[in-house]
Amino acid sequence: MKMSRGIPLNDQDRIPWLYKLHGILLREIASGERVVLACSALKKMYRDILIRGKDGTPWKHDELGKEEEPPEVKLFVVHLSGSFEVISGRLLKRKGHFIPPKLLQSQFNTLEPPSAPENFIQISVDKELSEIITTIMEAVKVQ
After folding, report:
1. Helical axes 11-30 vs 44-52, angle rounded to 10°
2. Of 140, 127, 107, which is closest to residue 41 (Cα–Cα)?
3. What is the tens place of the pLDDT at every residue in 81-118?
């Protein structure tokens, strides 16, 4: 794995994985499940793939020949934000994690924080864990 060798992932590495995650989300939602997916969808493009799947997916046609839009996932993003220093300090305390701390800068360089009209909340990692959890749970209830 590239990251365990200290090599950052690029779009070509991430996009096929995001397509697979979109498919999993669609399958679980179709079965009536509410789904929580934890991943670092660092770019808006990545979050769009989680919502819509593969760009250029042909539209389906119903019996009357009318186009139907490809299925979309209703995505609610929880963006945990923190300074490089805070996150770096926490990363250095991890034991046995496969991502070396030196890759953190590449994550920050790639990051495109969510913005309107994306469906998201932003929570500072400086808050207590219990407060972060409560904020997320309250926000999910209204989704």
Report:
1. 30
2. 107
3. 999 999 999 988 888 877 788 899 999 999 999 999 99
